[in-house]
Amino acid sequence: MAEHSAEVTVNAPLHQVYQLYTHFNDYPKFMTFVKEVTYLDDKRSHWVVDIVGRHEWDAVNENWIPDEQIGWRSVDGLANSGRVAFRDLAADRTAVLVTVSYVPPAGLLGNIGEALGAGNTFEQRLQHDLEHFARMVEEAPAGALDPTSSAYLFHAGSAAARGDATPAQRESMGIREGASNPEAPASTTAVSEPRVDEALNDPSLPRIPGTSPPEASKN
């Protein structure tokens, strides 16, 4: 198991920073290596990243404490888990520490790649995109709790602006295939239904912001 971390100080209050970080679906709009985060339901999400190769997984939320930390673990795809801790600093500043653990892909060859520097590349990219997050927050209006209010979305280096977002991510953002304008009308292409894992249908799991709780089951 490899573990890497990155940390940044954001010039914004703790609650605002925490809320903005939990909007996973907006990551490709300001990050560079995250190509997709789409919601499978109100507790699970699908991720596609491109660091030392393309990797993807489904993740479930865990260990969320409001204004303190969020966490996740993969349930298929690349085996990984992570934790993001938020710490209140003086003068409306917030420290954000991201720690990611994962099993290097391809077994022994993956471990060799990690030892030869692939892990350092991942950590550098993680730090770089965490700094993008800080800038996104700082360019949002004071008190804003939704990333779409930030002027930093779709900056030139973001995956979405470069056209590197996956078709599913573009669909979730309302961008037609072949369109370059992030404000283009939504596509009419049907989106396949996500797989449902009943073992994860636990009401104690934290829900993703912006999604609704599941309807009560009918007898």
Shape: globular
CATH architecture: 2-Layer Sandwich
Overall residue-averaged pLDDT value: 83
Number of β-strand runs:
7
Biggest sheet architecture: 7 strands, antiparallel
Q: Could you say how many structural domains there are in total?
A: 1
Structural class: alpha+beta
Which stretches are low in confidence, meaning pLDDT under 50 for 5 or more residues running? 183-201, 212-219
Which fold does the CATH topology refer to?
Alpha-D-Glucose-1,6-Bisphosphate, Chain A, domain 4
Would you list the SSEs in sequence order as H and E? EHHEEEEEEHHH
Q: Any idea what the radius of gyration is?
A: 17 Å
Cα-to-Cα separation, first versus last residue: 44 Å
CATH C-level label: Alpha Beta
Level of helix content?
A: 10-25%
* Alpha plus pi helix count: 5
Strand content: 25-35%
Q: Can you list the strand order of the major beta sheet?
A: 1-7-6-5-4-3-2
**CATH superfamily placement:** START domain
